[in-house]
Amino acid sequence: MNLFLDALNFLFDPANLTGANGIVPRLVDHVWYTGLSMAVAIVIGIPLGLLVGHTGRGRNAVVALSSAARALPTLGLIFLIILYTGLGVGPLIVVLVILAVPPLLAGAYSGLEAVNRPTIDAARAIGMTEWQILLKVEIPLAMPLIFGGIRSATLQVIATATIAGYVGLTGLGRFLIEGLALRDYKLALAGAILVIALALCVDAILALAQRLVVPHGVARGLTRHPDESAAPTPRQHGRVSTAPSNP
Amino acid sequence: MIEFHSVTKRFPDGTLAVEDFSLVLPSRKTTVFVGSSGCGKTTLLRMINRMIDPSSGSIEIDGVDIASGSAVALRRSIGYVMQNSGLLPHRRVIDNIATVPLLKGVKKADAHTQAMELLDTVGLDRALAYRYPSQLSGGQQQRVGVARGLAVNPNILLMDEPFGAVDPIVRDDLQQELLRLQHDLDKTVVFVTHDIDEAFLLGDQVVILEKGAQIAQVGTPKEILANPASDFVASFIGADRGKRRLAVDSTVARSGDDVVLVDGAGYVAGVIEAPGGVLPGSGVGVGTNSRARSVSNKTDQAGDA
Amino acid sequence: MLWLWDNLDLVLRLTADHVRLSIIPIVVGFIVCIPFGWLANRYTVARTILLTLGGVLFSIPSLALFVTLPALLGTRILDEANVVVALSIYAIAVMVRGAADAFSSVSRDVISSSTAVGFSAVSRFWTVEFPLAGPVLLASLRVVSVSTVSLLSVGSLIGVQSLGYLFINGYQRDFPEEILIGIVFTVIVAVLFDTILVLVGRLLMPWTRATPRRRSVTSAAAPVTA
Questions:
Q1: Is residue C22 part of a domain?
Q2: Is B251 in the same domain as B121?
Q3: Residues B43 and B182 grouped into a single domain
């Protein structure tokens, strides 16, 4: 427990808070990378996933892409891309976007696919246009899974941005990496605690947002019978199973 | 009036669901399509609001080809009720009923007032208006489905096995409710079922279909019962097993004025009131004539055909 | 490619380490999830607690968890145990949720009819519920297997030997080919594991092959003929 006390001492030492290499600027950087990449990834991934889910076209490509993304080691990917593009915030954002898109795509696509077919059929039969079906029926009903995709993508981005510390970019990962490199375990542990706290806070905020956004009446009983869930994606209520792909 | 002109539907997988179907469905009457699974009856129904477009042939409503306008506008002008209600699970009952009026731009307050009235129309307590569909029983959901179908005050109401998934007692209620509604509202109803008793109960015009939506017989329930056009129809309505052909049972001792009827297989089917032991209009005393008189059993819900 | 032939020994040794270290969490996750999944399926309170806890653990970035565990477990920072325990925690977090879903996917009718024909609670679990939950369990297990293999390489940042070493070494030497070979071998291991799981699943659950693909039937959009 002494180790934790040391780490906490480091965290609560006002001298470590500000300054160029302080906790606050690195936290801001970490959040900035995460927010920016998520914004870009959402703009790309969600409309694409909705398109695939609504039309049913490109379904196989999405399934293949999301399982491939799960198998690819993020650490290797980030190093490889940075070797080719050179160091910088730009390439980092590109890597983070690449990693965030598959879970978003899968969430949006599987969310739409999980919507009860007769409900959509009925919406069409009473005279909704395709747009109205998408906006007023499919998206609200798919919200839990769409949000699940957003949450797991965000966690993955926060985790991967931590590794960016290794290639010299700032962010909370720097404390961790510096600590490991200097064999200063107190510093590494402090960095780890910061990263964990950030991840948990962000996920909690997203969980609250999800409660606000997901319509009532959807939380239960929106989907098909459980035994219809398709391998190899297990149904994980509200969270798309890109599983711990956080590096 | 809905007219089918040589309508054929072949699905992309090659299934010929409907082949050269022509029929007139009179206005303000209930037409029932009845047949076994896969006979194409739902396909016929879904072609009326263009959920399915025919491969060839045309469908006219009041003389206008339905393919000439937009499918969405057509669907909004026709009520549609399906099995399992098809309600939107994320909207309260009242918003479900008001869905189409709201889509058409009716003010929310007006649409809600009207939705409340429709709850009365279909015999539901107004207190249910603010529940979600999952909080209702199956029968209540179907009533909400009917209310939604009526929300735009359509001339035509399409009903696709609407009572197929509710238990028999609730189904009886819903059927009676529909008869009452039809009596009050005078819509052109097109009803699909595989239950011949339901067809005979609800239909002014009953259309018995074979595979590929071939018409085996069309007529009023009376006409069909009296003269089944083919062995298929006879079998379908249960006439061949004697279910529909009842005879006075002369072996049972009479007590009072009722006379016991048995079906062709000898099972008790019901009783008939025969004051003084005399069948109305016959002048013949029951039991005095060994040649029992036939009585058509217009569907007392006892048959399972 | 030349680099691969020159360093085949190293690559194969790292691959062997990778296989060895990733098997443990997968097996642990599978074994632990069965009682917990059963609990979560049986009791709502247990479900809430277990799944919330799983969700929290699952949110922890792996590098941070690798680094935190020595302080909790009293291990040394370079111990393999840190990585194995961390990956087991993820595996359990995902598998408990998957197992709860798997058990709830077993039809109520089947369970009550097997009770009715006289199975005891224990034999019903092992002969009815567990096998019928198999397909959904397998699906979760496949997710866990693939992500464990992929995550393990992050452990090389704290010095645990696996194919991840090739990423770090390749990056430090500015040598993309080495990284690429690391990625390819990681994917090969993941695919190998997945194939084995699928084959074992087919062997143990022959009935799943006999079932037609329901989804394509029920969710086919258009033709509804009555």
A1: yes
A2: no
A3: yes
C-alpha triplet B136, B137, B141: angle, nearest 5°: 70
Q: What is the pLDDT along chain B (305 residues), one digit of tens a residue?
A: 899 999 999 999 888 999 999 999 999 999 999 998 888 899 999 999 999 999 999 999 999 999 998 999 999 999 999 887 788 888 899 999 999 999 888 999 999 999 999 999 888 999 999 999 888 988 899 999 999 999 988 999 999 998 888 888 888 988 998 999 888 888 999 999 998 989 999 999 999 999 888 999 999 999 998 888 898 888 888 866 666 777 777 666 556 667 777 777 777 777 777 666 666 655 555 544 434 444 444 444 443 43
**What ipTM, to 2 d.p.?**
0.79
CATH of residue B151's domain is 3.40.50.300
B-chain CB neighbours of A144 within 8 Å are: none
Instruction: Give the tokens for residue A155.
Output: 């966690």
B41 → closest Cβ in C222, C223, C226: C226
Instruction: Determine contact, residues A126/A69, Cβ cutoff 8 Å.
Output: no
User: What CATH number should be reported for the domain holding residue A109?
Assistant: 1.10.3720.10
Residue A230 lies in a domain: no
Interface touch A125/B51, C-beta < 8 Å: yes
Residue B214: give the domain boundaries: 2-239
- What pLDDT, on the 0 to 100 scale, is given for residue B34? 93
Chain A, chain C: beta-carbon pairs less than 8 Å apart: 209
Is the bond preceding B101 in cis, omega lying within 30 degrees of 0?
Answer: no
Decide if C217 is inside a domain.
no
Contact B51 A128 (CB under 8 A): no
Instruction: Transcribe A134-155 into DSSP letters.
Output: IIIIIHHHHHHHHHHHHHHHHH
Residues of chain C in contact with residue B37, where contact means CB-CB under 8 angstroms, are 226
Cα–Cα dist B193/A8, whole Å? 72
Query: What's the pLDDT at B285?
Result: 52
Structural domain containing residue C72: 2-206
The reply to whether A83 touches chain C by the CB within 8 Å rule is: yes
- Look at residue B302 and tell me if it is in a domain: no
Going A171 to A173 to A177 to A183, the CA torsion angle's sign is positive
Instruction: Tell me the three state secondary structure of residue B269.
Output: strand
Q: Does C131 touch chain A (CB under 8 A)?
A: no
B contact chains, 3+ CB pairs < 8 A: A, C
CB contact under 8 A, B13 and C223: yes
Q: Is C24 on the interface with A (CB under 8 A)?
A: no
Q: Does B228 touch chain A (CB under 8 A)?
A: no
Q: How many domains does chain B have?
A: 2
- The pair phi, psi for residue A219, each rounded to 5°, is -45, -40
pLDDT tens across C3-31, in order?
A: 887 888 888 999 999 999 999 999 999 99
* Chain A residues with beta carbon closer than 8 angstroms to that of C182: 73, 76
Question: Distance between CA atoms of C115 and A89, rounded to whole angstroms?
Answer: 61
A245 belongs to a structural domain: no
Chain C hits for A71, Cβ within 8 Å: 146, 149-150, 186-187, 190-191
B263 and B166 housed in the same domain: no
Residue B160 sits in the same domain as residue B198: yes
* Contact across the interface for A76 and C214, Cβ inside 8 Å: no
One digit per residue, pLDDT tens: chain C, 226 residues? 678 878 888 889 999 999 999 999 999 999 998 899 888 888 889 888 888 888 888 888 988 888 888 888 888 877 888 899 999 999 998 898 888 888 888 888 888 888 888 788 888 888 888 888 888 889 889 989 998 998 898 888 888 889 989 998 888 888 888 999 999 999 999 999 999 999 999 888 887 776 554 443 333 333 333 3
> Which of A93, A30, A67 is closest to C64 using CA atoms?
A30
Report how far residue B302's alpha carbon sits from residue C17's, in angstroms, rounded to the nearest whole number.
74
Band (A75; pLDDT cuts 50, 70, 90): confident
Domain residues for the domain of A12 are 2-217
Please judge whether A118 and B86 are an interchain contact, meaning their C-beta atoms are less than 8 angstroms apart. Answer: yes
Residue A239 belongs to a domain: no
Test B40 with C225 for CB contact under 8 angstroms: yes
Whether residues B231 and B279 share a domain: the answer is no
Hey, are the CB atoms on A247 and C63 less than 8 Å from each other?
yes
The verdict on B134 and B35 lying in the same domain is yes
Asked if C104 contacts C45 with a C-beta cutoff of 8 angstroms, the reply is: no
pLDDT at res. B193: 93
Whether B233 and B274 map to the same domain: the answer is: no
Counting the structural domains of chain C, the total is: 1
Interface contact flag, A122 B82, Cβ < 8 Å = yes
**Residues of chain A neighbouring C63 (CB-CB closer than 8 A):** 159, 162-163, 173, 176, 192, 195, 247
Rounded to the nearest integer, the mean pLDDT of chain A is 80
- C200: CATH: 1.10.3720.10
